[in-house]
Amino acid sequence: MGVEPKNNNYRLYAVIAGMLIAAICIVIKLTNIQWVEGNHYRKIAKEKSVKTFVIPANKGNVYSSDGSLLATSVPNYTIRFDAMAPSKADFDKEIGPLAAALSKKFRKPKSEYLAKFLKARRTENRYLLVEKGLSYTDYMEVKSFPLFNKGTYKGGMIVDQKTVREHPIGKIAERTIGYERVDGDGQARNAGIEGAFSRYLNGKDGKVLKQKIAKGQWKPIRDNNEIEPQDGYDVISTIDVYIQDIAHHALLKQLEHYSADHGCVVVMETKTGDVKAISNLGRDSQGNYYEKLNYAVGESHEPGSTFKLLDLIALLEDEKADTSSVYDSNGGVISYRGKLVKDSKKGGYGKISLARGFEVSSNTVLVQAVYKAYKSDPKQFVDRIYDYKLHKPLGLPFAGEGRPVIRTPEDPKWSAISLPWMAFGYGVAVTPLQTLTLYNAVANNGEMVKPQFVKEIREWNRVIKKFDKEIIHPKICSEKTIDKLHAVLENVVKRGTASSLYSKDFSMAGKTGTAQVDYNKGEGNLYYTSSFVGYFPADNPKYSCIVVVHKPNVAKGYYGADVAGPVFKRIAQKIFTDSPTMNKIKGLQGKSKKVEQAYETYIAKSADDLKRIPNVKGMPGMDAAALLENLKLKVRVRGIGKVKKQSIPPGEPLKKNETIILELS
Fold it and tell me: Which of 101, 509, 570, 583 is within CB 3.0–4.6 Å of 249 for a Cys-Cys bond?
């Protein structure tokens, strides 16, 4: 009987020992996974199979004061193609018709699409860009095209959707309507109404818990895990689309004529401070003008002669002089510490009254009057400016409001020429909107009100927040002074520097301003800021307005009456006479055949139907809105698509200026 070699037993024992050690390690690892690291792995497993999805809230709309839509959110679609998804038979059969349909829709060569698709199939491209920036209507049409109508898995159509903010009236007032966005560095860049009132507009996103199922799809787990999104509120602005259109085109025409660098115009309702129109246009490198920056709010600059209104108020209120006080213009030149103050008219105006000096904008007269009255106590003059809060920003809700510069005798930069220079609008800086606020106070019989850009925050018909008139100063001066200011401001237009603007058909009052820019750089580098600020009608002011034009072509003209004044007159005339503007807002011109057909069908039924609310359900939203506006109704639109609900039932008596809300699908 043979004996097994002893070393074979050792091998067996070694194998058994190894297996035993491996088993022990496995048991230890399993125990560790189960009890020590169990929570960690269970969390990973849950994250891969169960996930919380965000349900975006619908952002609120921004409306004009008359209910016109200024900003709204619309879906934007990008179409891509998975070239490997369709079967060979489907691809070969339908890729040609698909290319033909896309060619017809987007007006591109069929061969261009066909070449892209064939290359994508050959290179196994699963994410080929087909078209981007499509509307919902375009997306639905493309979805019905050959091959794409088979869906994602058989047809290869991939859809990326995002929501974009649209301005239905185009680029007009774009800076004031504003935006809310994040730059490349992840920093928030908010502007205008959109940025200032984002907490109301954005709403609150919802959440839903979903579980992963087959083919990468997710389904909600339970209803009690869902948090419904809260839609954003609507913001009702003070902007009037009609006045905005007038102001925009009046400014644009003048900027183009004078090849100016930039400019702004603001129209404000006198009693309330509601800003009815604001346009800010800057020139690009190609010479085109667009809403570049909000100059009216953010640009603080030396105002020049429009600042002289403060001289007159202070002198009259402090009884340092009267409008009849006489001053010698000294041949149009006076000197302070070696610095010359000159009148625009060579030789000056001789001896004239303070009122006449203001009307013809005599620098020598106004500077003499202020210096003589306040040289021993300049703080008394500056304190009045501080009393009107012109040394502080207006406190508007917008980011980037310009900071004014009004120095006091305690300021280290105050000098012996600070007071006389301040008297004709130099050595100080204010924004156009601050200047307008002062003139509006004079038009409003002394009550200074804060400019307002938003009237209400609403949720459908429910007012969430109302913005009432805010008074900065209840009475900037006495009635006696106000009456004298009204007279001289009206005479500026009748017989002063703005006499070229005078019209017997409607009255205006205001002040011209022409300020030198970069005057410290020498004669060869002189530029000008031309302005006009005032109100209309002069006898019962309803609106105040300021126009500022920076760096007009000097060869064509630079005086405030010539450059800025005509813009003011054009705006006042069109608003005063209620004549329609000849310029159309881009995107709104032309008539809708659908609306005309619908309107003709509606009015053709019977004369009695003209007195009742029509049924617009099923009509495209914009067509329905146009139809109802033709019937003198105020229309509010919510959503996009076709009308699925109207707040006033069809057949109800028609009441002009009644508000009807359309809910779109």
Answer: 583
pLDDT at 187: 66
| Per-residue pLDDT at 33 | 65
CB-neighbour burial class of residue 62 (10 A; exposed 0-12, middle 13-18, buried 19+): buried
- What six digits make up the tokens of 332? 């149009």
Contacts of 428 (CB under 8 A, 6+ apart): 302, 303, 307, 404, 405, 406, 407, 422
Tokens standing for residue 580: 């329609």
Q: What is the model's pLDDT at position 42?
A: 58
> Cα separations (Å) of 610 from 494, 607, 634, 654, 662?
48, 6, 16, 8, 20
| 196 half-sphere exposure, CB direction, 13 A CA radius | 21
Please state, as a whole number, how many other Cβ atoms lie within 10 Å of the Cβ of residue 262: 18
- Residue 298, classified by CB atoms within 10 Å of its CB into exposed (0-12), middle (13-18) or buried (19+), is buried
Q: pLDDT (tens digit, 9 = 90+) per residue, 537-573?
A: 999 999 999 999 999 999 999 999 999 999 999 999 9
Q: What is the pLDDT of residue 137?
A: 82
Distance, in Å, from the CA atom of 415 to the CA atom of 339, rounded to the nearest integer, reads: 12
Cβ neighbours, 10 Å, residue 93 = 13
DSSP designation for 36: I
When comparing pLDDT for 636 and 181, which is higher?
636
User: Kind and range of the H or E element at 637?
Assistant: strand 634-638
Cβ atoms of 619 and 627 within 8 Å: the answer is yes
For position 43, what pLDDT does the model report?
59
Check residue 457 and give its pLDDT. Answer: 93
- Residue range 209-230: mean pLDDT, rounded: 64
Helix (H, G, I), strand (E, B) or coil at 489: helix
- Angle at the Cα of 247 from the Cα atoms of 245 and 250, rounded to 5 degrees: 105
Helical H segments across 498-643, by residue range:
560-563, 565-577, 593-604, 621-630
pLDDT per position as a tens digit, 18-49: 788 877 877 777 777 666 666 665 555 555 56
- The packing angle between helices 110-122 and 88-106, to 10°, is 150
- Residue 26 dihedral angles phi and psi, to the nearest 5°: -65, -45
What is the rounded distance in angstroms from the CA atom of residue 657 to the CA atom of residue 638?
19
CA 596 and chain centroid, separation: 32
pLDDT one-digit tens code per residue, 467-476: 999 999 999 9
Task: Please report how many Cα atoms fall inside a 13 Å half-sphere around the Cα of residue 141, on the Cβ side.
Answer: 11
Q: 143 with 100: CB under 8 angstroms?
A: no
Strands (E) across 98-220 are located at 128-134, 157-166, 179-182, 188-191, 206-212, 218-220
The pair of three-digit structure tokens given for residue 211, joined into one six-digit string: 């579980």
Q: Which of 230, 224, 62, 99 is CA-nearest to residue 637? A: 62
